[in-house]
Amino acid sequence: QVPPGRCSLFDPAFSAQEAAALGQLGLRLLPDNEEGKHGVGGAATLFYMVHCGKALYNNLLWRNWSAGALSRMVIVGNSFRGMEERVLSRILERDYCYIAKVLKGTEEVALPAHPRYLDTFNDTSVHWFPLEKLKELSPEVWDFVEEPTYQECDDLEIIRKEEGASRHSPAAAES
User: Fold this and answer.
1) Strand locations in the chain, DSSP E?
2) Domain residue spans of the chain
């Protein structure tokens, strides 16, 4: 069990009332919009990112782009395999290259669909990155570590630091 004080949360859409309620529960609110670029540090970390845009997942992977860091994280969110199936490979590799590069190092299990919410949570999976699988990736995979910019991205689903609030960013719980 993770103590509430070790759970960090962020959503650019949190109202002042929601933030106050979460604070009263003892949860730690991250003060800044990191655009998904939250590092795991030395702790095992769970990222709950249901219904987030691909750029947030890509940013999270970029920020933690090493076998050691990735192997300490679990993501509950949109299926990476689903992204691979629905996005043209050239677009996935150009705009979301960290998702594309880590697919072979990812274990993914789909959460069962709820019969009442088939169109809402039908693409949610648990992802983890076993160290042994990450070590099997070619060394070139780890060489490219440029920060994503999304210059050519037409379907960007992210709230930038400069923008207001209305889309989801990750919540993280460190253990």
Assistant:
1) 7-9, 28-29, 45-49, 73-78, 107-110, 124-128, 171-174
2) 35-142
